[in-house]
Amino acid sequence: MARIRIQRLESELLKLLSKIINYTLRDKNLQMVTITAVKLSNDMSHAKVYFSHLDKKKNEEVLNSLRKSKGFLKREIAEAKIMRIVPDLIFEYDEIEKTARHLDELFDKIHAESGRKE
Fold first, then answer.
1. Which one of 47, 61, 79, 80 has the minimum C-beta count within 10 Å?
2. How far apart are alpha carbons 46 and 24 in whole angstroms?
3. Which range among 36-40, 80-84, 98-102 shows the weakest confidence by mean pLDDT?
4. How far is the C-alpha of 25 from the C-alpha of 73, rounded, in Å?
5. Into how many domains does the chain fold?
6. How far apart are the first and last CA of the chain?
7. What's this model's pTM, rounded to 2 decimal places?
8. Which DSSP letter does residue 94 get?
9. Maximum distance among all alpha carbons in the chain?
């Protein structure tokens, strides 16, 4: 039962953070940033916020901008009254694209090797 509540809160936080970052914040480093996932800890005191950005070279700048705007984001979460206690936000770059690309390369390699043996 508690896990269902956490999943619902993660979904609400994802929507809210995406809206705030894309429409409220005016930091030029945060343009074209996508929040891909939010993972709350079991006690809901910490939230890992995963993001991606089109320009891979600016990941560090985007991360710094997100960290600088953490206070504003937490205040907006508090005003939305989604949760009684606002979690500490931890921002991390989402490596899913890199992992998917690596897996595709491995599958292509396996497929090419199996084609030679036949």
1. 79
2. 23
3. 98-102
4. 9
5. 1
6. 52
7. 0.80
8. -
9. 63
Domain that residue 32 falls in: 2-117
Burial class (CB in 10 A: 0-12, 13-18, 19+), 89: buried
Cα of 43 vs its chain's centroid, Å: 19
Q: What amino acid is encoded at 22 in this protein?
A: N
Residue 52, amino acid: S
C-alpha to C-alpha distance for 115 and 99, rounded to whole angstroms? 24
Does the pLDDT of residue 42 top 60, yes or no?
yes
- Give how far Cα 46 sits from Cα of 38, 43, 91, 92, Å: 10, 8, 11, 13
DSSP string, 18-79: HHHHHHT---GGGTTEEEEEEEE-TTSSEEEEEEEES-GGGHHHHHHHHHHTHHHHHHHHHH
Cβ-contact 59, 91 below 8 angstroms? no
* Mean pLDDT of the 55-78 span: 91
